[in-house]
Each structure stands twice: as C-alpha cells, then as structure tokens.
Amino acid sequence: MPQEVYSNFSIRKLSILDKDGKADEKLLPKLSPAQLKEIYTHMVLARTLDEKILKLQRQGRIGTYSPGLGQEAIPIGSAYATQKQDWSVQSFREHGMMIVRGVPLLNIMLYFGGDERNAKYPVDNILPNSVPVGSQTLHAAGIAMGIQYKQKDAVAIAYFGDGGTSEGDFHEALNFAGTLNLPCVFICQNNQWAISVPRKSQTHAETIAQKAIAYGIEGIQVDGNDVLAVYAATQEALARARTGKGPTLIECVTYRMGDHTTADDATRYRSPEEVQYWRERDPLLRMQKYLLAQGMLSPQLDEQIKNESTAKVEAAVLQYEQFPAPSVDDIFDYHYKQTPADLEAQKKELHAFLDTIKPLGNEGEK
Amino acid sequence: MTKMNMVQALNSALMLEMESNKDVVVLGEDVGVDGGVFRVTEGLQSKYGKQRVIDTPLAESGIIGTSIGMAIYGLKPVAEVQFSGFIYPAFNQIVSHAARIRNRTRGKYASGIVVRTPCSGGVKALEHHSESTEAFFIHTPGLKVVMPASPYDAKGLLAAAIRDPDPVIFFEPLKLYRAYKEEVPEEAYTIPLGKAKVVQEGSDVTLIAWGSMVKTCQEALQLNAQNEKYSIELIDLRTLSPLDWPAVHKSVQKTGRCVIVQEAPKTLGLGAEIAARLAEEDLLSLKSPIVRVTGFDTMMPYFKLENYYIPSPERVLHGVKKAMQF
C-alpha cells in the first residue's frame, strides 16, 4: 500500500468590518439600519454597564466581577441572531447576550452582588452563569438532544473561553454533538488569556476552530471584534442546525481588555503594547465608525444613545442598592422540589439561633 | 405476580416508566443493542427506539452533562454509569451541576436526572468494579441517594426515582442482581423515597444496613437463630438521602443498642453520621456503645481477599455480640 494523502482540510476565516469600520460589502448580513442601530445600542449599554460595575466593585458596593470589556461583539452579535425558542448556555462573560435577550440589568448586578435571586429571569431559555470552566458545553449538547428528541425548531448555543477548550468536557460536548448530529452551536470567546495563561499554552493547534474537523463538524474562525461577522457566522450556524445539518464550532478571536476578574491584575503578565494593539481594534468603536460613515448614526444620536444607556444603568444601580435583603430561608428552600424534613429541621435550628441574637442587617434577614 | 430477580425487576420498572411517560429516555454505554453489561436495559431499544435508548460515546461526564441538559429541557433522562467505580469523571457534573441547577435557577429549571449505577463487591470483579461510593453523594446537598436491597424494592424504588423531580443517584448492588428471585408484581408500583423498611422486628438490638449488606444481615439473623437467639431488629434504609431518621430513632429508642453495617470504608461513611445522630439525640436510650461493622479504610482489595474486606454474616454477628455483651 503506498502512502497517500487521506484528505485535505481547511478552515474558513470571516471578517466583515475592518478595524477602521470599513465593511466588505459582499459579506454584509441582511440587517436594516434600525437593526444595526439596535445592535450598536446594545453594545453601548453593555459597555456602560461594564464600566459602572467595575466602579461599584472598587467602591465596595458589589462583589467580584468578570468584565466583558472589549468582547461585547461576541455575546451581542451572536444573541442578536437567535430566536426566542433558542437556548443560551453561558459561561460568565456573556452579559451582552443577557442584555440582547431581555434579562434586566438588575439581574446581572444581583449576581455579582452575591444575590441568588439574580437568576429569576423574566425571559426563558437562558441558563445562569456557569462557573466551572467548560462544563456547561455539555448542558447545551443535552438541551440540543432534548430539542432533537421533541423535534422542535430550536438551537442550543454554548459559550466558553479559550481556556475552556482545554477541559475534557469541551471534547465530550463536541463529540456528543457530532456523533448525534445535534442542533447546537459552540461559541468560543477566544480572548487570548485564561487568567494569566496565554492561548498558545492552551493548545498547540494554530486555531481553535480547526478542532471542529476532528469531530466531523463545521468550524469557522471569525473576527470576534467585528459584531457583523459574529452575527453572520452565528446566523449561518443556526440555519445549519435548524435544518438538521448539525453543530458548528465558531471561534471568535478577541481580546480581554480588562482583568480576568476584579480579583486579578493583568499587568503582572501582559504588556501595555499588546493591550494598545487591541485597543485600536475596539469592537464598539469600529461599529460606531461604520454607522457614522453610513449616515445611520449622527454625533447627536450617538450622544443620545450614550445618555440613555447611562440613565438605564443608573436606574438599575438604584434598584440594585435598594433591593431588599434576601430571607435566610432562601439558603434552604431551593435544593429540592419539596424540602426534606431533616433540612427543614436545620432551617429551624438556624432560626432558633437567630432569635437569640440581633438581626444581621444587610447580610440576611429572618 | 411473577418471580423476578433484581435485574428483571429493574428492567420491568424501566419498561413501564418508558411506556407511561414519553419523556423518559435511557442513555449510557452499551445500554442499547447490548441491553447493558448486566442486561438491565435489555429490550428497551428494540421496543422504544434509538432516539429514546441511546448508546452514547464512552464518556461518563458527557453522559451526565447531557442528561442535565435534557432534564433542563424537560425530559426525564435515566442515565447508566456502567460501574460506580467509573463515576468519577462525571463527579463534577453531578456535584457542580445536577445537584445545583434547581438552586442556581431559584427553581426555574431542575435537573431531575436518575443516575443508575451498579455498586459494591462480592462477585470477583476486576479493580474499580466493586466500589461502594455512596458517601460522596450523600454528602452532596441537592441529591437524593437510593440503594435497594431486594427485587421488589428495586422495582418500586426505581419507579419512584424516575417520577421524582430531583436528581437521584440510584445504586444497584451488583451482588444482588441475580442472587435470588422473589414475587414482584408485573404492573407498575412505587415505593416512596425516604422511607426505611423494618425487615425483621426485634427488641434487643437494632441492626441498620443498606444495599447488599441487608442480605448479609439476613444471613446473620439465621446464624443468630441457631445460636445466641438475640432479638434483633433489622432495618433496611433503602433511601440513604434523605434518610428516614424517625425510623432509626424509633428503633434505637426501643432496643437501646445499635449496630450499623456498611460495606464502604469506615471513616466518614454513612455509619458515622448515623452514630453521630444517635449520640446527639438518643444518648439516654443507649445501653451500649454504637458498633460499626464496615469495610476498612483501604482500597477495595482484588477479589482474592475481598471476602475479608466485605462484612460477612459472621462479622455482623460478632458486632451484635459486642453490643449485647457490653
């Protein structure tokens, strides 16, 4: 048997808006001026919220926060392509997705304020933050199995980072999705850094997108700071999933402009030059430049959008800070559909103790 | 009524629950065409199809993680982990997610999955095939843990676990799979989770066991009937979490003595919790120190030595004598 090439594989790369906001007209997705402005408005709101929560954290008014600064195009562009019946299974840097899908800013703040009531979303099909890295990819695959079994017109989207692709669950999720041909989209926010470990230390592969090849599924790399490219790639992947053509892995190349969380200091491990390089590729500024150049946005309208975002965020901060403290019963009451007697007894024991001391104030009430 | 062994009883429960609830799906390694390595899922795929009885890739975390997703979506997945010694790759999914989804979403979503997994030793199996891992899961808030000890209970408890809204880890003592047959109704029935069973009433000493140790204790009762003739009350816990504490307290308050029999390692096993609760709440009822008859704080030995590790009827009786002769 002679040696021969079994097959040649290739990976597509998609970019629509360049760093100066100039679009490749042939690749532009079908979006009306109103829709484009709406996407931009979501991005401004996400950025405004991000900056505000950072300030609140520094002032001790909210807990540890994972900023989304510089990555807004990914959760927003992808969520904008979803339909109501689609599922979004997030990691912990997809605040923009929640904004697009109608989760109130208050809920996002409550999460970082250590309040479990954050997850009472008034909208459906969104799972709350999942902290164990990479593990949530399997939940999206499982939801897609449910969609497939019930023969529904819906898709499950999983979000994760470049670090998450090193976890075994990422492999298992893509493998399940491939073998079972699931209606599932895997969106990697490749922001180059998993806390202090760079992307090149996570994998020797040239791209994350090419990992799709090994699972026999579709893979594409997109400019993750280009909201239109993210939207277009997600739209294409959703259409593929909806028509029974299986899952897609979308690698969105971006950069974590902020620290990993407010407990991190990224200056310890990366250079100012690198940060500056990416600052020039800001996803928000490039969308702004595009809209201004197209005449869809005026400096006045831009100012108005920013003012409205600030007002929304300030209103949410007020709601957040005036939100009544949770009941200590909340510690116990959501573990089981019906709380077992022994757990009820432990709750009573806590109350009996609290009756002997002064109320705890902000930390919890009886 | 018909005579069934535990494998047949479990299979019957799965058949009936799949029949009555279209949302029940079965998934795992070899559960389809092969009917499971112990044949518990035999015939399910030919009856209910590949969409409902899924031969998954060989990946425990994947099986449990996708089960969680399906449960969130509204299905009722019954996942099989081929041996409880192989459950560790899925441990993160069980502890970090299955147990927490209801709490994390404030009750909006739940992951009421059932994880069936054979456990414990006594059948001369290879390494990792004879583990008793229940304590990890009893220690995890948000889970329910069940371990039947008879074919009749196995069928009723599995049906109850499948109908339960919370995640249930369902341990099946593989030594009991084909150990004996008993009368089991052909129709569906449930045995409520969280209720222990008094296998035999007695007044001198309470013997507490679960899983395959119940049968070992029944054999100890037979030895006792020939010799010491103590009046022994045998309790089968059946559900390990939430545990039927009233049943435990009631019996020990009556007998004043307690021997706990567990196959798992001694330290921090369920027996330790039972002993602690009795010390906290029934100290004045106790006539003798609580005795634990357990496996050792060692690895489960390979099978040439496993019968020295697993409590035997004789060792159980030795423990009973210790309590009686204090």
TrEMBL record, chain A:
SUPFAM superfamilies: Thiamin diphosphate-binding fold (THDP-binding). This is Pyruvate dehydrogenase (Acetyl-transferring) E1 component subunit alpha. It comes from Candidatus Iainarchaeum sp. Residues 41-326 form the Dehydrogenase E1 component domain. Keywords: Oxidoreductase, Pyruvate. Coiled coil: none annotated. NCBIfam families: PDH_E1_alph_x. Pfam families: E1_dh. The lineage of its organism: Archaea, Candidatus Iainarchaeota, Candidatus Iainarchaeia, Candidatus Iainarchaeales, Candidatus Iainarchaeaceae. One of its GO terms (molecular function) is oxidoreductase activity, acting on the aldehyde or oxo group of donors, disulfide as acceptor. One of its GO terms (biological process) is sulfur compound biosynthetic process. InterPro entries: Alpha-ketoacid_DH_E1_comp, DH_E1, PdhA/BkdA, THDP-binding.
Automatic annotation (TrEMBL), chain B:
GO terms for biological process: branched-chain amino acid catabolic process; response to nutrient; sulfur compound biosynthetic process. InterPro entries: THDP-binding, Transketo_C/PFOR_II, Transketolase-like_Pyr-bd, Transketolase_C. Residues 4-179 form the Transketolase-like pyrimidine-binding domain. It holds the Pfam family Transket_pyr. The keyword Oxidoreductase applies. Its cofactor is thiamine diphosphate. SUPFAM superfamilies: Thiamin diphosphate-binding fold (THDP-binding) (SSF52518), TK C-terminal domain-like (SSF52922). It comes from the Archaea. This is 3-methyl-2-oxobutanoate dehydrogenase (2-methylpropanoyl-transferring). It comes from Candidatus Iainarchaeum sp.
